[in-house]
Amino acid sequence: GLDAGTWAAWMEAVHYGDEDIHVRMPKFELAYGEDLSDALKAMGMEVAFDRSRQNFPRMTPMPRSWIDRVKQK
Q1: How many domains, the chain?
Q2: Does 37 map to a domain?
Q3: Measured on CA atoms in the order 39, 45, 47, 51, is the torsion positive or negative?
Q4: What is the tens place of the pLDDT at every residue in 16-49?
Q5: Contact of 35 with 20, CB cutoff 8 Å
Q6: For residue 38, what are the domain limits?
Q7: N or C: lower Cβ tally within 10 Å for the chain?
């Protein structure tokens, strides 16, 4: 696969001074997802993830609401 190290090696190998180099790549899709729950807990939001201690009365009328996980996609 193409990672940062491979890309850097390619760029080092084709360094021709100030000349322009045109590179064509096939169309591709890139997807990324990350679970942010641990990061948010580490930043002080651990109570929001604790079902026995948290609720969100200003956001929902449902009692005992909590955050199970946060996923960025």
Answers
A1: 1
A2: yes
A3: negative
A4: 667 777 889 899 998 999 999 999 999 999 989 9
A5: no
A6: 25-73
A7: N
